[in-house]
Structure formats: C-alpha cells, structure tokens
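Z., the sequence and structure:
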Amino acid sequence: MGGKLIVFEGVEGCGKTTQMQLCCQWLQSLGVCVVVTREPGGTELGLHLRRLLLEKSEDKPIAEMTELLLYAADRAQHVEQELKPNLADGKYILCDRYTDSTIAYQGYGRGLSMEIINQLNYIATGGKTSDLTIWLDVDVEVGLARKRGGEVALDRIEQETIAFHQRVQQGYAELAASHPGRIFRVDGSLSQDQVQQMIKEILGDRLLSSVR
C-alpha cells in the first residue's frame, strides 16, 4: 500500500487538532501506519521557524514577504525530512496545514502575489500536492471564540483582524470550489462525533478501499 498525504485545513479554531488525533486513532485501529505532523513546526528547524512566525512582536513586526518566505523554508525542510521518507515507506501522513494554508493566509489574507506563492509552493514541495485535504469549515467568529476561550494565549496570526480571517475563509471556499476532487468540505460546526464520522466516510470512500 502506497503512502498518502492527508491534510487538515481551516481557519483558527476549526478543530483540526482534535479531528487529526481521532483520525489517527481510527486509522491505526485499521492497521494503517500513521504519522502525524504539522506546518509550521514539523521538524527541528521548523520548531524555531514556528516560534519566529507565531510570536507577537509589537516593535519589530515581520514583513509580509518575510513571513511568506519563512513558511516556504519550513515547508521545504518538512517535505525533505518528513514527508518524502514517510510516503516512500508507505505511511499515511496526517498533516496540520500545507500549501493551501499559504494560499489562503498569505494570498487571500495578506494579498500577496498568487504567482509568487504558487512558485514558492512548487519549489518547496517539488510539486507534491495532498492526496486528500479535509477542509473544516467553521464561521470565523465561532472559531476565534473557541480560541479565546482556551487556556493558551492567542498567537500572532490568531490576533489578526476579523476582516483578515474572513478573507482567509474566502480563500478556502474558492480553493475547495476549484479542487473538488482533492479538497473536501466538512461542516466544522457540527458535533465532534458528527465531524469525525464525515471524515471517516470521506477517507473510506477515497483512500481506504484497499485496507477495509
């Protein structure tokens, strides 16, 4: 059985972390070898880049193009160190964010050049796209309220304006419309069990016929 890259995407507070954990447990119960990772921060280098990207700095903010390039650097290292070897070993990778995040956040959210973003994504990944992307679609204000109600302080991206996050959400909607065979929308406002059941059905239909 060949390896597969399954990506979880969505705005802040959409429930990616919880659903990835549940999905990992379910796949392992089916005998699938699973790796859980994330961007940014899926490698040792990536952890340092994640801190630079997400920590808030009032007097020395990160320039928008610098932000984009740091995400690309994280991705390039992640692809080479984690994704390629694990896919070659036939493992299923569950990845919290990938190339669509950069399009949604830096493209739609920041308004940076889509041409440059697409070029950097291709350079960083060697053209590797996800085999399947789960887009957990939740209202921006609902997702941010979930984050604000948690015990962890909001990071730099989470502290962006509502308008920024709404543009990101629009980006995901347009990406899903443009890639219906790769990106699958799941209503993130449903109960945890309902969301997980929908994800199981999508993965079962699309990727797991050989292991069921």
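The chain has eight helices and five strands. The longest strand covers residues 4-9.

Let me know what you think.
H.
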